[in-house]
Amino acid sequence: MNPNPLRERELFLTRRQLFGKTALGLGTAAMAHLLPDGRLFADGSKGGGLHHQAKAKRVIYLFMSGGPSHLDLWDYKPKLVEEFGKDLPDHVRDGQRITGMTSRQKTLPVAPSKYEFTKHDNNDRGVWVSSLLPHTAKVVKDLCVIHSTFTEAINHDPAVTYIQTGSQVPGRPSLGSWLSYGLGSMNEDLPNYVVMHAKSKHAEQSLFSRLWGTGFMPSDHQGILLRSQGDPVLYLTNPKGVTGKGRRAQLDALSVLNNEHYKSFGDPEVPSRLRQHEMAYRMQTSVPELMDLTKEPESTFELYGKEAREAGTFAACCLNARRLAERGVRNIQIFHRGWDAHGGLPREHENQCKDVDQGCAALIKDLKQRGMLKDTLVIWGGEFGRTTYCQGKLTRDNYGRDHHPRAFTTWMAGGGVKPGITYGQSDDYGYNLTDKDGNVIKPNKHKWTPGTMHIHDLNATILHLLGIDHTRLTYRYQGRDYRLTDVHGHVVKDILA
């Protein structure tokens, strides 16, 4: 028995760091000798990914927080026009859970979309797009539109937490943190995981930093929030009287103290803290250059729209996402809030779509013309969809919709996904998922059903495209090996190029 308990703790922790945190343990250590730049993790450009050939180097996730209505944007249901105002048939709902916000309504009246849909050619059965998305409609041949996404969570915070971390209960690492942990960085001067909050006219639900946090992982894998006002990152600018040389001396002195602490106690968070300090120092130069758009040509702002000149707009965030991707940032996430349209959905969704439509399309076009779309995975979607039935008063021109986790639409583009296809489908009411013959199915997360995309399947597929086997990327915490998809998830190979 080691007579020094502090030393014993140090040895335990460092051994665990090396061997126990991931199924890759020795494999990643061995890879260090094979990579030309000395990093422990493979760069997708070098045929890497940890487990197999990666199709994508990076991810740009456009998250529409609040639940955009698939029925008003992507999932065209002409039959609903005939059903206007009628109570949703019992056999459609089939006893499925609804929220307390509509459970007390005497009726659940069917609310067809007021918007015109146009069918656009693609590589299979065509894709219908709402008039609310005229710009995105022009790039549908680059999109894989998934009509069969589903989840179990029915309220916002658990649903957003679920899709971001793989658990409805807070405390797990986020998708971006898993990517940082599993793949490492492709740059030295910018964070591996960057988050932006786009301005919205209908900012309702709060977003908590745990959604881009590391949970029980080392803190240097967390997302760094770029702000639209003041310094892009808090405390990025040196205080008055502090020079760059003086800051460097402070960090060097602090590193000595931290290393002594680590030698004495073996706290694994200390190396993470040191890495964060060094990254913050380098970001003092890299971030101002990143946020300076003066060298972008006029054609860029014609593509993204005039709002791209205004910091914090969705268009500006999309432009910055492209700039981050060019500079080797692995995971970029843009949150756009305010999609929770319980009442007055047409007014709210019209404003929301004006915010995001041109930016989404411009990002796809911009990446494609630069040759980057092929290895950049772009994802668009929210935590759930919205109900077929109206919440509150129903008219032809105005209605609200409640939360709907049973069937909703996401889309993916680039990064190894088949372009110009649709995947999965819902019934004539946009309420339940169906098989290819139109028969209602009841999928669940435990066993994959062809044509469906549970959020665990979505995350498993994202990891796969970046060269990661979601069943093998694990982190040991409190005696258990955790993974992003928990004990679930299937790679949806039908959408892979």
Tell me about this structure.
The chain is α/β, with parallel strands linked by helices and 497 residues long. It has a single domain (53-237, 298-495), classed as 3-Layer(aba) Sandwich (Alkaline Phosphatase, subunit A). 32% of the residues lie in helices and 15% in strands. It is built from 14 helices and 17 strands. It has helices at residues 5-20, 25-31, 70-73, 79-82, 90-93, 134-137, 156-165, 175-183, 244-265, 269-291, 298-304, 314-326, 345-369, 455-465, and strands at 58-64, 117-120, 127-130, 143-150, 193-198, 224-226, 331-336, 376-381, 385-390, 401-404, 408-413, 421-423, 425-426, 433-434, 453-454, 475-477, 480-482. Strands 1, 4, 5, 6, 7, 8, 11, 12 and 15 form a nine-stranded mixed sheet that branches. Residues 1-48 have low confidence and may be disordered.
Structural class: alpha/beta
CATH fold name, please? Alkaline Phosphatase, subunit A
Q: Briefly, what CATH class? A: Alpha Beta
The beta-strand count equals: 17
Give the count of structural domains: 1
Mean pLDDT: 86
The N- to C-terminal Cα distance equals 56 Å
Biggest sheet statistics: 9 strands, mixed
Instruction: Give the strand content.
Output: 15-25%
Query: Can you tell me the CATH superfamily?
Result: Alkaline Phosphatase, subunit A
Supply the number of helical segments: 14
Low-confidence stretches: 1-48
Rg is 24 Å
Q: What oligomeric state best describes the polypeptide chains here?
A: single chain
CATH architectural group: 3-Layer(aba) Sandwich
What's the helical proportion of residues?
25-40%
Name the overall outline: globular
